[in-house]
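Field reference: "sequence" (input) and "structure" (output). Example, DUF1552 domain-containing protein:
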Amino acid sequence: MSYQLSRRSLLKGAGVAMPLPYLNLMAKSQGSAAQKKRFVALFKPNGVHPPTWAINDGKENDYEMSALMRPLQHHKKDILIMDNIGNKHQASHHGWNFLCGNNRPKGASVDQVIADKIGQDTSVRSLELTTEGIFTNQPDCSYISYDSKGRFIPRESDPQLVFDKLFRSPMSSASKRKEMSSILDGVRDNTAHLKRRVGKEDAQTLDEYYTIVRETEKKLALAAKGKQSSIDTSKFKRPGASSNLDQQVTAMLDIMALALWTDTTRVSTYMLGNDNSRLVFDFLGVDEQHHWLSHFFRNFSIGNITKLNKINYWHMQKYAYFMDKLKSFKDGNDTLLDNTLVFYGSSMGHSDTHAGSRIPAVFGGGKNIVKTGRYVNHAQAQDPRGLHMALLKQYGIEADNFQGYKHTMSGLTDSQYEHYKTKQYVKFIKEENGLIKLQGNLRQSPNIDTPRLHLMKVDNAKSVKIEVAFKNFNSVNLAYYCTRDVYIEAKGKNENGHWMITEITKIEELK
């Protein structure tokens, strides 16, 4: 009789039960999780700085990453960037905008609908995670997942507790866990027994798996240890999660990857901060609260925008790290990334005005779920719930509506949509009676260290740079026009074909 191994198999011993990754041996058993679809949602708090986030003049299959998206450059073939998602409503700080749309949920969020479809036969139907506690003044800021009755679902924020929940038996006592230097100690006998029955490739997979688990435990121990001091700190008020935020987030992403790889869960959401996150990123050299910096018009300075973009850039680095992790794991004949769609986004676009338009929406991985390697910029603004409807369809869910919305957005798997096109017109700059007139496509400098600088390409000049004082920047709402075709009247100077605009007196979008 040939030896078979179920996908639901666990290694057990000494009060420990540990799920296994996908092995070739499991392909002979029914119910194998290879090729199973997974869904992950990574929530980015406090919106974005649009001029630094937006893609300029991008075509579906020919576009250049924006400054903030550069951590994903090596994943360009593995991502699908959606643009012009959202409408003109003021999003405010409501986490539900991300996975439910712009109204208070009347039913389950999109992740929970997907979990009902693909997560019922896993030990953890869905996994909800976060980096910080509940914002009690406005609890809606602290949740993105909602159940079938529109009630928010609690989240876990401690990587060690999540790790124990997923990979340690709940029957094991705390004292027993302390005696174990590694969960592998408790399954050593079963490990040797299993390795004698698998092939060489499966044995290598098991060795890799155990190594990763050990590395994850080491990271958790390092994050928990923190700074040591001879001072009695027992009476100190416990600081927020930001004291070890980088380690905390990295550990949680590692745990999520393991949970997906072992098929412990197929659906997970992770909030990188509350919707109005007050986290302080001191490890990046940023001492101000994220939320305060996100109001970059009201609290404007070059230094503040640079700090805000450091935070936004770090978020993208963590997204790229998670994709790297998933891509390193084998999943049948594919990688785990190929079968996991990672939705990265926010509840608002412009972080200062809380605009509900041009909400960040990037899909990483999931090449067996959506068509990646593209930039989809709809000519007309799309209701987020239309995007959610399209997601449900890709997971085999036929729904009449989602949160009361009945239309399915196109573009996730096809090119049957109207892509935004730059208007055809003469791009010029000239000076008449002391007034500079110019028209073209306005864009942000690609250099993340010069967030105040804007550029415009015209046909009759070597370069056009626009750098105005904040009062002028704010009064004409220059950020709103970024990536748009505009006509400008301004003051400035010309030096041998290189123009510098220092004050804008009029700006309007070309019709």
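The radius of gyration is 25 Å.
Residues 428-509 form a domain with the OB fold (Dihydrolipoamide Acetyltransferase, E2P) fold (CATH 2.40.50.110).
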